[in-house]
Amino acid sequence: MAVLVIAEHSNGVLGAATLNTVAAARKIDDSIAVLVAGQQVDQVAQTAARIDGVTKVLVADNTAYANLLAENVAPLVASLGKGFSHVLAPATTNGKNYLPRVAALLDVDQISEIIEVVSPDTFKRPIYAGNAIATVQSSAAVKVISVRATGFDPVSAEGGNAIIEVIDATFQQGRSRFVGEQLAKSDRPELTGAKIVVSGGRGMQSGDNFSLLYNLADKLGAAVGASRAAVDAGYAPNDMQVGQTGKIVAPQLYIAVGISGAIQHLAGMKDSKVIVAINKDEEAPIFQVADYGLVGDLFELVPQLQDAL
Amino acid sequence: MKVLVAVKRVVDFNVKVRVKADQSGVELTSVKMALNPFCEIAVEEAVRLKEQGIATEVVVVTVGSNAAQEQLRTALALGADRAILVEATDDLSSLTIAKALKAVVDKEQPRLVILGKQAIDSDNNQTGQMLAALSGYAQGTFASKVEVVGDKLNVTREIDGGLQSLELSLPAIVTTDLRLNEPRYASLPNIMKAKKKPLETLTPSALGVATTSTIKTLKVEAPAVRSAGIKVKTVAELIEKLKNEAKVI
User: Fold this and answer.
1) Cα–Cα 20 to 30 A to A174, which of A35, A295, B167, B241?
2) Under an 8 A CB cutoff, do A253 and B242 touch?
């Protein structure tokens, strides 16, 4: 058995979720290859070769793989994947985009967002917005699996010394073209990897009021998240959404401000170590999962909290 | 052009599901069922394309039990023209469903297929991508904006860092994100009219699709319960607890 892990990366930087995915791979087998597909990915490949526990790095550097277009990346991964018992990718938007396409090309079912490796063919994954945990067994020749990063502690980024192998295969389907992207700019830590997350909901009442949370977050070195209600109301951009359909976070400390705590939001944050809720409605469901609850007006409490830190 | 929309019958998103005592799955008897919210957005987008004169016909399809006719009628009431039920058991894998949908795509030859990005029961987020692979079509997943320009499709996608724009060749597959549109409500006259719209029933075997799977669910458990903590009275008390008790700041 050997495991192929597909690296997450953007702008020449290896994505942190890759380390969590390698951690899941190590629970399956010791022989781990990492595929770095993209354009001008030398630097990423060098970084990947130093990951603790990685034995080989496959580099597919080609314009066809720029921006990880699923139409071109999936056949590449499928052709390489035939030589492995498992193909793993982080459950990022990239991984979720190309991996089911890989599975279909290999004619196998895919297992999404595992949170635990029970054995090399048996895995646990949340269903129904995290309200049930399914244990699933796969008899597929190649097991194609996406990994929820928060389910696995990352391996060390240093200590490995993998050999690097160049892959020449080019799959250029020509059915899709990258036009552009609009990335939200932020100096704060990345939401899914942050140790502390401060999130706002409908209770923030406006996008301007989110500055209260940004100020608090900056004092704590925290990332800022939002509920779907806040995103839909235009208070915050969509990539800040925490929940079943947004990002899944499990920080040391999660501070929910003006968030009622709908099932869909809890799905994205209930594995946080400590949850703090600040809400004026003491009946809000968020208090049923909060370790520390503070009932009151967030417009008074948040500035007080910031000043007191 | 013809637009095909795939929909799924799922537990209503507001229901707090309960795991069965024998750990075989979640309790679904006498639980409120509904159209998967992402599928509702897919139907709405197709109907809007029809209202813009781009789509000529909107065909809605589901793969599932006979009870899913109810969700097909809902889609018809929202503006779809006709429906196809591929009658099968409810617990098929995404790959099997994608294969059944591929057979329907071969039969119907749509220019565009719209699906939800994920069903809120299995939370797989796989079917659209698998259908795209099987059809050889381009895919625009997690779409928050869709625009047909000649024989191309411009798709804005929600990605981890923000938004990404792609240009796809038609025919293509699109999966919807929540922000693509706001679905309309079906009016009573439209619900009445939907009852008369055509609904065709097929089976996987008639489509030449095997329903075997390489995945077996061994058990379904309730997640670890997180119990409510304490309420603090002041900000000072909160900070004291976070520093000395939880030790997280």
Assistant:
1) A35
2) yes
